[in-house]
């Protein structure tokens, strides 16, 4: 059976060049980077070179990069670290949105249960938050604003620069989850006016288990990994040198081909929409596009089955595609097994059944036009199977 992987927003295959760059640090340059002997110094040099490459990629200073275990830890570090720092000043209010990744949402909910006030801003039907809503939500107690750069389920790009300017005017630290934008579109910390950025390697053909948190110099943040003095005393624990080296190599490759990759996935998205319009014409308006063409990155296309037209088993929809060799998801990989309606799709104003019957196609560097054609053909077959066993609503 042919297998097509269109779940690149969940994770990507590691680029062979990344694997090659990592290998010596498993077997030859294996020292603990905190050790003072030659083996340790060689490992330390590799970390600092990687830190420089990543910092340069986002127009930051190397001292502003803290290596973490991935996007979730980076989000948690930013939320809890800044919140605890604000608490010392009597500030216990956080502003975020209803469509954040659960690494942000659940952190904010935890703080809410423990004395913090959290404002969860709504988004429009296009999935974009209004900067004026951010401004209106600010109080004298606001200690943090956190708005993701690109949504992981529908691909919407938020007005980060405008929100950053608002946060700057009020002297409030501003965090953005850039896990889905880093390495795909330009992320310049100075242009975006952000104070903290979360990113992860495995979304850009790097290894799993490594990410970073950018913290602008001068931002007060409490650490919550305690122990050694690694990462300039901000995050205890022996660094994983191979993963850090691999992350830097993945970033180096993105710097070389980000424009090329963007144009490639743009052509894939265009093809998919054309193919879907063709093959789904007989079904009428059974599909709802959740990824506004002009407000999203081309890496993600999200569709829902219109519950106003037909009831469909959301779980069977994904498994039906898998049985035909097409790997997709119904939202975030962290929650796709929960069989709950997507909080993101609900926030767009969709009903619960429509939110459940959602499919996310996400494209990558090595996908082809043939992959897209095959995936849409199988998608149409799966939906037709449901339509054949049900009566379309009128």
From TrEMBL:
It holds the Pfam family Aminotran_5. SUPFAM superfamilies: PLP-dependent transferases (SSF53383). It comes from the Bacteria. One of its GO terms (molecular function) is cysteine desulfurase activity. It catalyses: (sulfur carrier)-H + L-cysteine = (sulfur carrier)-SH + L-alanine. Residues 4-374 form the Aminotransferase class V domain. Its cofactor is pyridoxal 5'-phosphate. The keyword GTP-binding does not apply. Gene3D superfamilies: 1.10.260.50, Aspartate Aminotransferase, domain 1, Type I PLP-dependent aspartate aminotransferase-like (Major domain). Its EC number is 2.8.1.7. Keywords: 2Fe-2S, Iron, Iron-sulfur, Metal-binding, Pyridoxal phosphate, Transferase. InterPro entries: Aminotrans_V_dom, Aminotrans_V_PyrdxlP_BS, Cysteine_dSase, PyrdxlP-dep_Trfase, PyrdxlP-dep_Trfase_major, PyrdxlP-dep_Trfase_small. Belongs to the class-V pyridoxal-phosphate-dependent aminotransferase family. NifS/IscS subfamily. PANTHER family: CYSTEINE DESULFURASE, CYSTEINE DESULFURYLASE FAMILY MEMBER. This is cysteine desulfurase. It comes from Kryptobacter tengchongensis. The lineage of its organism: Bacteria, Pseudomonadati, Candidatus Kryptoniota, Candidatus Kryptobacter.
């Amino acid at each position: 059976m042919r297998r097509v992987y269109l779940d690149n927003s969940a994770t990507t295959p590691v680029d062979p060049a990344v694997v090659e760059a990592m290998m010596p640090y498993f077997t030859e340059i294996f020292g603990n980077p905190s050790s003072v002997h030659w083996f340790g110094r060689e490992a330390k040099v590799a970390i600092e070179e990687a830190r420089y490459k990543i910092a340069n990629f986002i127009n930051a200073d190397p001292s502003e990069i803290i290596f973490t275990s991935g996007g979730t830890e980076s989000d948690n570090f930013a939320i809890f670290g800044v919140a605890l720092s604000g608490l010392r000043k009597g500030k216990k209010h956080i502003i975020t949105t209803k469509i954040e990744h659960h690494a942000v949402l659940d952190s904010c909910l935890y703080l809410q249960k423990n004395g913090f006030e959290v404002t969860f801003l709504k988004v429009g039907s296009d999935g974009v938050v209004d900067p004026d809503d951010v401004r209106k939500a600010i109080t004298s107690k606001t200690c943090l604003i956190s708005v993701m750069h690109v949504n992981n389920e529908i691909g919407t790009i938020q007005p980060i620069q405008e929100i950053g300017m608002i946060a700057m005017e009020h002297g409030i630290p501003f965090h953005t989850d850039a896990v889905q934008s880093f390495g795909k579109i330009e992320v310049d910390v100075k242009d975006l006016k952000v104070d903290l950025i979360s990113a992860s390697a495995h979304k850009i053909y790097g290894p799993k288990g490594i990410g970073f948190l950018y913290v602008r110099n001068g931002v007060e943040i409490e650490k919550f990994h305690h122990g050694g003095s690694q990462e300039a005393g901000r995050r205890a624990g022996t660094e994983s040198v191979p993963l850090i080296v691999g992350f830097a190599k993945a970033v180096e490759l993105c710097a070389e081909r980000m424009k090329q990759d963007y144009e490639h996935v743009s052509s894939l998205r265009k093809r998919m929409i054309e193919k879907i319009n063709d093959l789904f014409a007989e079904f009428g308006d059974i599909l709802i596009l959740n990824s506004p063409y002009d407000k999203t990155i081309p890496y993600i296309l999200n569709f829902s089955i219109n519950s106003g037209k037909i009831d469909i088993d959301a779980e069977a929809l994904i498994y039906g595609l898998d049985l035909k060799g097409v790997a997709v998801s119904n939202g975030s990989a962290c929650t796709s097994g929960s069989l709950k309606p997507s909080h993101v799709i609900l926030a767009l104003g969709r009903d619960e059944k429509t939110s459940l019957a959602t499919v996310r196609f996400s494209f990558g560097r090595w996908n082809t036009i043939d992959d897209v054609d095959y995936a849409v053909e199988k998608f149409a077959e799966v939906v037709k199977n449901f339509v054949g066993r049900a009566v379309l609503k009128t």
